[in-house]
Design brief:
12 strands, 418 residues, 5-stranded parallel sheet, 36% helix
């Protein structure tokens, strides 16, 4: 059977791809409430997608064990989109026209989500977003709601740039993958950097297929940039970190990182180990934050993740995917409806209560009060997964309300680990 057409089994795990969610409980008479999505379980985004899907399945189990929603069992269907944006329009067309799902959840990440935005707007479907960036900026779909704790590009880069400015940085190098997410971020960051009076001395895109970054890292080093802002997807992020570790960026480099997807994934972080030290990057959650709902969820998640052989920490995506389910449940219960327009109207007007905290949305379906973290890797050792449960390995620099430490610069000092 084609990988894209495999459904996700409730029992969990990246390898258990078959069938819809079973339930042994007795439910009220009537058809199941069908929720559908695609998720990258293979390809470059697979490490994150597997963790995200497990969290959603946990929400389905929890909800069905309580009797479902409106007395109806949730039937959850997901297809592997293989991290390929070209696959998602056909998958979501199938979900609507063949599987006849009632509600849609977006795939993880910007690349797979962007191509389905015109479809869901045309069909007037609610779409719960899943850690994508600026995919609704042009589509302007009024039934889109992103679960990610960010909003605009300048907001994304704010914590990173505040740290850079505090160290006296004035020159910037921008390295961005030629893909939807990285280009959205870089395009928004450039005018923000200019507004801060910074001088961009290097600005280069690279193809997503790039494996060897040595020439690009040497070029950045030659530019003598003090601030190195990188927007990348997982494979590129890991390769860039390896090249920086080998070649270096020069003694003038103050801060490196910014928008590197993948460094949040446990397997990548463990493999890179001490090479991460000093890098300043974004995150959604790290240990030490005052989020009891997340902490309790992660205790249960870790047990399931070990069984399923997926990311055992799950900090980045898992709590926020569980929150998608919570928001759907709150809206469905309050409106006593599964009509897309009624649910969207409710979510627009009300505070959503989730394990990641309360969420309110702006007109574009993004968080009205973003809570994106800027963190710096410190004291990371090689081949040690459990170290990342310590608040000391990823120190929060911003926002101020969550701050757990001060920025260490220059980069050559910070990368020595402390």
């Amino acid at each position: 059977m084609d990988k894209i057409r495999r459904k996700i089994l409730e029992t969990g795990g990246a390898g258990l791809l078959a069938a819809t969610v079973p339930a042994s409980l007795a439910f009220a008479q009537g058809t199941p409430l069908k929720i559908g999505m695609s998720m990258p379980l293979t390809g470059g985004l697979g490490g994150g997608g597997q963790a995200a899907l497990l969290a959603l399945k946990m929400w389905v189990e929890d909800t069905n064990n309580k009797g479902g929603l409106l007395g109806r069992k949730i039937e959850f269907t997901s297809y592997d989109d293989q991290s390929n944006p070209a696959n998602t329009p056909a998958i979501y067309t199938k979900l609507l026209d063949v599987d006849k799902v009632d509600l849609l959840i977006a795939p993880y990440a910007t690349g797979p989500t962007a191509p389905i935005m015109p479809l869901v707007k045309q069909r007037k479907k609610l779409l719960m977003g899943n850690f994508s960036f600026q995919v609704n900026a042009k589509t302007k779909h009024d039934m889109w709601f992103n679960n990610a704790p960010w909003n605009t590009a300048d907001g994304w880069a704010k914590g990173f740039m505040e740290a850079a400015k505090s160290a006296g940085g004035k020159t910037v190098a921008i390295l961005a993958e030629d893909g939807e997410f990285a280009q959205n971020l870089a395009d928004g960051a450039r005018p923000y950097f200019k507004s801060l009076g910074l001088n961009v001395v290097f600005d280069q895109n690279y193809p997503p297929t790039t494996k060897d970054f040595s020439s690009l890292v040497r070029a950045i080093r030659s530019s003598k940039a003090e601030i190195v802002f990188i927007a990348s997807y997982p494979a590129g992020s890991a390769a860039i970190v390896n090249s920086i570790s080998e070649i270096g960026l020069g003694p003038q480099a103050l801060i490196v990182g910014g928008g590197m997807v993948g460094l949040q994934f446990t397997p990548i972080a463990v493999n890179l180990g001490s090479k991460l030290n000093g890098i300043v990057n974004y995150h959604s959650y790290v240990p030490g934050m005052p989020t009891p709902g997340v902490d309790e969820f992660l205790k249960r998640y870790t047990v399931r993740a070990k069984e399923a052989k997926v990311d055992e920490l799950g900090f980045y995506l898992a709590p926020f995917n569980y929150a998608i389910g919570e928001m759907l449940a709150q809206a469905i219960t309050a409106t006593k409806s599964i009509e897309d327009a009624k649910l969207a109207d409710y979510i627009h007007k009300n505070e959503m209560k989730t394990i990641v905290g309360p969420i309110r949305y702006d007109a574009d379906g993004e968080w009205s009060k973003p809570r994106l973290l800027t963190t710096q890797f410190r004291g990371v050792k090689d081949k040690d997964q459990e170290q990342f449960r310590s608040p000391q390995r990823q120190v929060i620099l911003a926002p101020a309300a969550d701050k757990t430490g001060n920025f260490i610069a220059p980069f050559d000092v910070a990368r020595k680990g402390s």
